[in-house]
Amino acid sequence: MDTIMLNLILFGPPGSGKGTQAERLEEAYNLVHISTGVLFRSEMDEGTELGIRANEYMSRGELVPDEVTIGMLKNKMLSHADAEGFIFDGFPRTAPQAEALDQLLEDMGQQIDALIMLDVPEDEIVKRIVLRGKDSNRPDDSDPEIVRKRFQVYQSKTAPIYDYYNEKGIAFKINGIGSIDEIFQNLCDTIDSLHV
Ligand code: AMP
């Protein structure tokens, strides 16, 4: 019997709430949550070569080069060969990453079913991240200069990824302002309306 797979991209600027919502979706839909930011931070904590290399970019608010990011993502996906689907959080962030992801899934006989964007304006983002930086141990959250740089990188390199999936008819936008429960409900409604 064929298992029905569900592969989602949770999209939006840094600080839009992707991580929080992805954790809830992971549980609700039995998906494997892959956050490239979390993977990089754990490589950094372990002091691996990959972590040290990634940190050079992360500490400046820049993107880690595509070949490093794509290689790490591929390994992570291959280590979950029995997954019922994935929720990608913080990936893809560039056009080559989107193309590589499509190819990887195609090789596995799968595809992206939807990209859902959490829509949050810039002013709100900078406020939220700097607040988050007070409690988290993320140096890239505590410095407003770096936060702004990350937002610029998002606008120039990552935002166009929405159009890439929109052209395929699988991009959705929901309001990223509201309570965690409200936003989660809107996400579930969007996912449940997909004809997967
Ligand atoms: P995040 O936790 O998603 O906000 O990511 C934190 C930082 O990790 C980013 O500012 C980038 O430096 C790096 N990073 C995470 N995901 C990617 C990605 N898909 N491509 C390139 N760099 C990434």
Would you kindly provide a brief summary of this structure?
The chain is an alpha/beta fold and 196 residues long. The chain has helices at 18-29, 36-46, 49-58, 66-78, 95-107, 122-135, 139-142, 144-158, 161-166, 180-192; strands at residues 8-11, 32-35, 86-89, 114-119, 171-175. The chain has one domain: P-loop containing nucleotide triphosphate hydrolases (Rossmann fold, 3-Layer(aba) Sandwich).
Describe this structure in words.
This protein is 57% helix and 12% strand. It is of the alpha/beta class and 196 residues long. It has a single domain (6-120, 170-192), classed as Rossmann fold. The protein has a five-stranded parallel beta sheet with strand order 2-3-1-4-5, sandwiched between helices. α1 (18-29) packs across α10 and α4 packs parallel to α5 (95-107). The chain starts with 7 loop residues before the first strand and ends with a helix. The mean pLDDT is 93. Bound molecules: adenosine monophosphate (AMP).
Q: Beta-strand level of the residues, as a percent range?
A: 5-15%
Order of adjacent strands in the largest pleated sheet: 2-3-1-4-5
Q: Tell me about the biggest sheet?
A: 5 strands, parallel
**Rg (CA only):** 16 Å
Bound molecules: adenosine monophosphate
CATH architecture: 3-Layer(aba) Sandwich
The gross shape turns out to be: globular
Our measurement of the CA-to-CA distance between the termini, rounded to an integer number of angstroms, reads 16 Å
Number of strand segments: 5
The CATH topology = Rossmann fold
User: What is the structural class?
Assistant: alpha/beta
So, the CATH homologous superfamily? Answer: P-loop containing nucleotide triphosphate hydrolases
CATH C-level label: Alpha Beta
Poorly predicted ranges: none
Helix content: 55-70%
Q: What is the mean pLDDT?
A: 93
Order of helices and strands: EHEHHHEHEHHHHEH
Number of domains: 1
Number of helices: 10
